[in-house]
Amino acid sequence: METYHKSVFTRIPEEKQRRILDAGISEFAARGFPGANINVIARKAGISIGSMYKYFGSKEDLFLTIIEQAHGLLASALEEIDGSSGDIFEKIEKMVRAAQNYARQYPELHQIYLDMTSEGLSHLSRKLSGKMETVSVNFYERMIREAMAQGLIDSRQNPRWIALFIDNLILMLQYSYTSDYFKERMKIFLGPNALDDDEKMAASLLQFIHGALKGEGSLK
Amino acid sequence: METYHKSVFTRIPEEKQRRILDAGISEFAARGFPGANINVIARKAGISIGSMYKYFGSKEDLFLTIIEQAHGLLASALEEIDGSSGDIFEKIEKMVRAAQNYARQYPELHQIYLDMTSEGLSHLSRKLSGKMETVSVNFYERMIREAMAQGLIDSRQNPRWIALFIDNLILMLQYSYTSDYFKERMKIFLGPNALDDDEKMAASLLQFIHGALKGEGSLK
Amino acid sequence: METYHKSVFTRIPEEKQRRILDAGISEFAARGFPGANINVIARKAGISIGSMYKYFGSKEDLFLTIIEQAHGLLASALEEIDGSSGDIFEKIEKMVRAAQNYARQYPELHQIYLDMTSEGLSHLSRKLSGKMETVSVNFYERMIREAMAQGLIDSRQNPRWIALFIDNLILMLQYSYTSDYFKERMKIFLGPNALDDDEKMAASLLQFIHGALKGEGSLK
Amino acid sequence: METYHKSVFTRIPEEKQRRILDAGISEFAARGFPGANINVIARKAGISIGSMYKYFGSKEDLFLTIIEQAHGLLASALEEIDGSSGDIFEKIEKMVRAAQNYARQYPELHQIYLDMTSEGLSHLSRKLSGKMETVSVNFYERMIREAMAQGLIDSRQNPRWIALFIDNLILMLQYSYTSDYFKERMKIFLGPNALDDDEKMAASLLQFIHGALKGEGSLK
DNA sequence: CATGAATGAGAGTTCATTCAT
DNA sequence: AATGAATGAACTCTCATTCAT
């Protein structure tokens, strides 16, 4: 399997690995990839810049290592939900909660994820594509087909599209927790305190999705 | 009203203004705000860097001027729809079409919009907030309340939340037209050719929204 | 015609151009191409490093500009000799004198020339080849063929080879004026003061060449 | 006798010594002294960088050790010719052949030799001077004086100068086998295939030297 | 109003050398 | 005797901004 760090990196104490990745996360999140300063990251992590380049061939490689790790976290959260019991609505609820938790727990990591959508970094997203979303796609599709078979949801819609729309809605929810831009946006739509009530937010989103899935959505 | 360019800028020939803004758009879109080179923009626009700084106090101001202009385009598209006849579903359809057109016509402008969500630029988004979305919020709210009053849609949901979710879905659609990252994401969900069929995309999204609005979404 | 500096360089005062090239020459001569520090060169020349990069795209381009200029000096010296009257022996004598003068006057320039033979710089010599020696080759060949026709020298040898050997001998003479290595070498062969007597050196070399050209060189 | 490696170096297996020197030779030849990376050399040699510094006090010492070894090879070739029978012309022929063989067999070693003439390395050549050429000087002088005594060659020229010129010519021949710069130079003088015909090259040079030694070189 | 040469702080990256194990 | 992780000064190059003309 392809990795973006040199092999030395895995042989240093885990605590040091964490310090380096965390320093990277906070710098990348705060200043974006082009604005981040790798010498500053090294200093924050308490290592020399020379060591930094012993572990990662370039600023880009450090960034990709962080992204991949973030993706790992997401994927394992997803797998847990995938393996759990409950119907589609319960599972989606779990996903929404997981997204909220993730965004609350690792806001910086999520901010970095967001940054990858900027064009200056498109060559990076191309490097990672495929790895990125395939996990969730399969999960969604299986869940939706099952629910259709059980007559739980409207089966006239294409499961792939539904999956995309739901995932979009959840992703946007997450963005609203981390990105200043989306925070502002949310305040404008919902008032200044909307972000404080996770329960309300989850409930509203779930209700919206529920309707879409039940789907009196037939356009006559 | 606050502007980000110096007043001289408005006094030069409109054609020159366009050349400058267009050069900026293509550079910012291609390389992101931090990666963009303002000397290159000046050269592309056929003006001197000295003049550039006569018109705009900083790289940031040029960027903000461009964003604001983009926003103007969006706002006027919205107003046109707002003023048109038709029920909520027809209006939403118009919005989806408009979003597609906008993304197809000004992909670079839209890319820049996207970039603003990155944290490195959060101080910029804070500067612009308020201007950005207030237009659409009012439009949505009016439209939804009206539809509720007419019994066209489920009235148990909060209009503000519905507005946000719909806008999120449309925004994501737009992202999928411009950002490499979202393009890849869409391909993973829908296969390699999904982006070629605008009709299919619009129909699917509208059906999803229709269901959500009709809303057998009551969670018992 | 291809140049290695940007066009701005030619538009700045000649005196400044000279200061920059001279600073470059002395730094490159003293420390070799890889050892030379372009920031130091800029400082020595009294300009900012930013300006340096406005004039030359890279350290390499500055180097190549200097080399080309050196070549120009050589070429014009050669042309003068070429156009002068006198038989082959007189012309070769002039060349030897010119080589001595050049080495005495521009020892650093000549040192740089020498450095180009090192493998680390082979990509540079490839860039310049063709430009480099074609001038002298034509000059030599014409001169030798003429002398053969006049019966002045042995005509059984190939003019091209003779030209190469003579040029080699003169080149080595020059090296002995500039390179520490060749200076040491010469001292070992000729004693510590050999380099002080230009006359002796010229006379010895000319006598050696004279014999070779007259050429009882037939190998039975 | 002065050596440039630490004494430990001689106590490790000879095969390891060879591996280290060979790795050094190929790296120095390819990238020059300043460009060579001593960590890379250690890796290529299959030893740790720590050991490298146990054997050699510095990058420079490794380089000097290699040079000295190269010099040993040259010296022994010379001694063999020195001890052989034959007149001066036969011996010079042997030297030319030896030079060709050496350049063909150890092109990298010879390239390194060449690099030493660059000024960035002048402090190194000063360190080595004396060792370098004294062997050949004595050899030449003895050979030439003998030939003069036998009336084989013109005795009006200074044996030391003749020795230098002949050695210069042979050295240049060698350069033409290894240095890209001199290869290009030779092609310009002799056409693209000159380097393929060792016989022709040897014959031409010998004929030239023969004439010079026979010396109708008296300048009236 | 317009120009564009000039600036220099600061970026990412390299590598000879050290030293604890 | 051997290891190789760690160091950090030093390098080349970029670019937002200024200012004399």
From TrEMBL, chains A, B, C, D:
<dbReference type="GO" id="GO:0003677">
    <property type="term" value="F:DNA binding"/>
</dbReference>
<protein>
    <recommendedName>
        <fullName>HTH tetR-type domain-containing protein</fullName>
    </recommendedName>
</protein>
<dbReference type="InterPro" id="IPR036271">
    <property type="entry name" value="Tet_transcr_reg_TetR-rel_C_sf"/>
</dbReference>
<dbReference type="InterPro" id="IPR001647">
    <property type="entry name" value="HTH_TetR"/>
</dbReference>
<keyword id="KW-0238">DNA-binding</keyword>
<feature type="domain" description="HTH tetR-type">
    <location>
        <begin position="14"/>
        <end position="74"/>
    </location>
</feature>
<dbReference type="InterPro" id="IPR050624">
    <property type="entry name" value="HTH-type_Tx_Regulator"/>
</dbReference>
<dbReference type="Pfam" id="PF00440">
    <property type="entry name" value="TetR_N"/>
</dbReference>
<feature type="DNA-binding region" description="H-T-H motif">
    <location>
        <begin position="37"/>
        <end position="56"/>
    </location>
</feature>
<dbReference type="InterPro" id="IPR009057">
    <property type="entry name" value="Homeodomain-like_sf"/>
</dbReference>
